[in-house]
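Quick one: structure tokens for this chain, please?
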Amino acid sequence: MEFLAPAMFVCLVATLFMGFPVAFSLAAIAGVFGIVGVLTGRFEPSFLGGIFFRIQGLFSNDNLLALPMLVFMGLLLERTGIAEDMFASLNRLFGRVPGGLAYTTVIVGAVLSGITGFVSASVITIGLIALPVMLRAGYDHRLASGVVAATGTLAQVIPPSLVLIVLAEQMDVSVTDLYRGALVPSLLLIGAYVAYVFILTKMSPRKAPPDPSLATSRAVGPLIGQALVAAGLPLGLVMVVLATIYLGVATPTEGGAIGVTGALCLGLLRTRLTSEKLHQAMVATGILVSGLMFLLMGASFFTLVFRGLDGQQWIQALFSHIPAGELGFVIFVSVSVFLIAFVLDFFEIAFIVLPLVVPAAQSLGVDMIWLTILLAVNLQTSFMHPPFGIAIYNLRSITPSGIRTVDIYWGAVPFLCIQLVMVGLLILVPQLVLKPPLPASGSPRDVDITIPLLFETPGSVSPWK
């Protein structure tokens, strides 16, 4: 019966390619093979009852409680128009210089990506806000589309990304440690995007001309004040959420609650928050989070049955044939995930593929925080790889017909190369992923443990001191 685990995996792949819903496909295949496992004596019927404890654990998981909070915060900032105000104010400040609109797109997109948390939503939101403005200013189609696609994929790695919360749960690492580890790679990617735009505009200013509508704008001083208010408040809100989590003042769930409270206050302060917009944000949050929970429950049932059929041993046996030890394992997993992302979206990879990798990685002694950040950047790269990247598809759906698909492809290539360099840097220099501080070292001999006697008499000394 050793073929049951491979057959279960093959059936799942075939079902996904047939287009069935992922959550129900996972649960259905787990149910069928669970019955087969009971009938063949691989495990007792009571073994399948473990799914109820797994579901209970999902609903009591502190990390997952942060998901609805952060989703709600992002939707509030989007529905109240705060993101558009931020882009407009920064555009008035930077749009008068070559490449200024691209700089604005990167800055605003980085904030929106961290808040939105999903590549598809981030690319569409940034594209609808920034792309028409860049096109009206006469930007090169390739540069404009490439900046939008690349900035939107930052949702994979920039804290407080919802993607990192899901990865932390699936890779069995701390969300706080993952946020800390993603900080430097995120900043390096943002800096690399800005540097590329700067170099390109120096070499060819025609590709990113100043916004002609700002030629007669007033002095820079008042514009700086407007930008600090319009962009500083939402950016400060994100910084407060991250700071409370980094410093241990709040858990990720409590940090998300702080973010929601701040977003509500910003919406009320600008008189943009109406009952209708609040209702829309709440409904959208409920739909999105409900879909994620169904995915988690289906994946949890699938993993339970797969392990009952000794699927983990089968996976580890496959990985044991990879040469070069830990480095070979990391390269193999990175390449595999990169290719799988051409046909599966993030949640399918996170709930199906990554749980199969974790036991093998832990047995090899791979640093799980570093591996998680590496895979997040790797997925970000794959999602904008033409012609299969999901960011390319999302961008194509909102771009005017005057922009050719081939221009979108070529516009993504320079940013794709930047992301590939980042993947290589993470492999060669793992110190880029910040680790939590080590506890103070001490010798076991310095610890004084005294066990009192049960019947102590005057002058007696415990022999266990």
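Confidence is low (pLDDT under 50) at residues 440-444, 453-457, 460-465.
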